Prior knowledge:
Distance between the termini: 69 Å
Mean pLDDT: 80
Oligomer: single chain
Low-confidence stretches: 1-28, 43-53, 406-416
Bound molecules: zinc ion
Number of strands: 17
Largest sheet: 7 strands, mixed
Amino acid sequence: MPIGPFDRLHDVDQKLDRFNDWKGMALANRDAEPFGFGRLTSESRRPGQGMKGRFGPRPTWLILAEPPNAPLAHERAFYQTFFYGRETPSTYAWVMAQYGAPPVPVLGGPPATVHLTQEQAQLQLPSRIPVIDEQALRDIGSYPIGWGGLDADRDGVVKGTELLTVIVDSYGLGNATTQSLTVDSTALGYPLQIRGKYSVMGHQVALQTACHEVFHQWGAIDMYGADQSFHGGLTTMAATITQTPDDRSMVELDAWHRMQFGLTRPYVYDLATQVSGTASISAVAQNRYDSAVLFWDSRRGPGDYLLVELRQATPGTLDSDCASGFVVWQCKVDANGDPMGGLTPNGTYAVNAIGPGGVGDGAWASGSSLRDISWVDGTSIGVEVTLDSPNGSTGTVEWSPRALQGSKFDRLREPL
Ligand SMILES: [Zn+2]
């Protein structure tokens, strides 16, 4: 099934130009930049930050590891298409559609194949990785790019920003992980050290999971939720591992990631000064910039904000299997703009979808009125938000001072 048509342009600077032209100057504000709009699109844009991805295509080294008596479920050509194919379903097509920065088979030729011994096949992660890597390295000299071509900045180290390594292994059907590791390849007689990120995945991995791991290499973080509720159907960066072999469902990134990657440019409102208003947004599947509203309060500072987006499950798009409705993302970030971790015992980062039943409860239906939305610390945002989308593909977000219904009456009824 082909993807598209896509409104997004592939180059970020072109995107910014396009945005400034789009719908005239009415939308051409830079209000979203303090909240990280576009910052994961390049290392140079805001250097020195903890979370660094690097936008752009890069050589991808696809390694197929086959233990004895546990052959991969598919032929080699299948994996080549799964990662490099130009049409969906493929990791290339998905990442290309998102960023124009796909995994590129610059190493040339078919994927490397490594046959593990019985003993090696018993190894767990991460010690399994260098064993596979070292065997695959024997082929690397024969690739057209050569060692020199891998070390783009010529510092003697092949880093994760210079080489995307994907290992497919029958180790776990659909499991996947991305780990940072240094392989001491100079000790093996090779000219360069490999200090990279390795995305390791099972041989029947879901497309969404493969993309999740590749997005990590571009700087995306896990969005498991403060209570480990996983935000199912709301973001590629939730838990995507499924028991369905070769699952091909697709869910777009959450509004927070899309803003950081420069894919969504939210309308920004400061609730300290704009206590009421209305904004129109497009569903994420429409693939336009205007797919979120950002609320913050200048009296609290930019560390707390809400992103409100509209999702509509739409066949033939990257959001074909999302939860439909309005999603409210409650965000708490540090001085660098990175989501804060460790606020709850089991949670990952403080970016949570707040649904009708609380944290992690999914999407709000059209017609919902949200009276009790709070910042991460539980303080009310002070306004009531009404969400409306009769057609599902465009919607309005309306807000007004929260009615203090019943409060005087309640006080009169308090016992003396
Ligand atoms: Zn992850």
